[in-house]
Amino acid sequence: MPKIVDHDERRRHIVDALWRVVNRDGASEVSVRHVAAEAGMPKSSIGHYVGTMPQLLGLAVDELIQQVTDKALALDLFELDRDKVVDVLMTLVPVDKDRRNQSGVWLLVLSQSPSDPEVAEVLQRLNGAVYEAMVELLTMMSRQGLRSEDRDLERDARRLHALIDGMSIQSLTDAQIRSREEVRAILGDEVAALRSPSASATV
Hints:
The chain has 203 residues and is mainly α. The protein has helices spanning 7-25, 32-39, 43-49, 53-73, 82-90, 97-112, 117-143, 153-173, 180-193, 199-202. It has ten helices and no strands.
């Protein structure tokens, strides 16, 4: 009787192998050959169970998004204060070694997206998820009196997204440029500023 293969289990095994490569060797070493070797499979198995390398990166990015989402939801967005909002935003900035290793996958996707349409789609999905998370957080802040209703929601979400991306790139390319305390202070200042109407709203 032929052995029944659980495709979801095999995909899970392959994605786990990718993360082991990332955590041990860095995202720059991620390739079909290295992931297959780590998973103990032939390279052809990656294509069979996952698809292309961009599709594998997409699965890894989806998992990264889910991990960050779970951490943010665990902080209870229905009872926010300034410190808790900063805690939520801190889940998006790689301020320690393990998170820098994981977020290196984002940097890999970012570097490959201009020349690979499939990778560009992965990046677009990631950017969309972060932007929607910013909108949700800002909406919850408004409901709880932590953000002025006179402000433009879309503009605030895009600015927060840009701030998070900028500090993440700094952290990934130079681990010494921003300490955890400095990242918290910068985010805290931004959160505090959201209580006041924007300059355009007061003109």
